[in-house]
Amino acid sequence: MTDLETADPQALRTAMTEQLVGEGIIRSTQVEAAFRTVPRHAFAPEATPEQAYNPHDIVATKRNEQGVIISSVSAPAIQAIMLEQAEVQPGMRLGEVGSGGYNAALMAELVGPHGSVVTVDIDPDVTTRARELLDAAGYGRVEVILADGEHGLPDREAVDRWIVTAGAWDIPPAWTDQLAENGRLVVPLRVRGLTRSIAFDRDGDRLVSRSAEVCGFVTMQGEGEYNERLLLIRGKEIGLRFDDGWPADPDALNGVFDTDRVERWTGVTVAPMEPIKGMQMWLASALDGFCLMSVDPDLDTGLVAPQNKRANITLLDGDSLAYLAIRRTDAGAEFGVHGYGPNAEAVANVLVRELQTWDRDYRQAEPVVYAYPASTPEADLPKGRVITKRHRRIVISWPQPGQVSNSTAIEKEN
Question: What does pTM read for this prediction?
Answer without folding.
Answer: 0.91
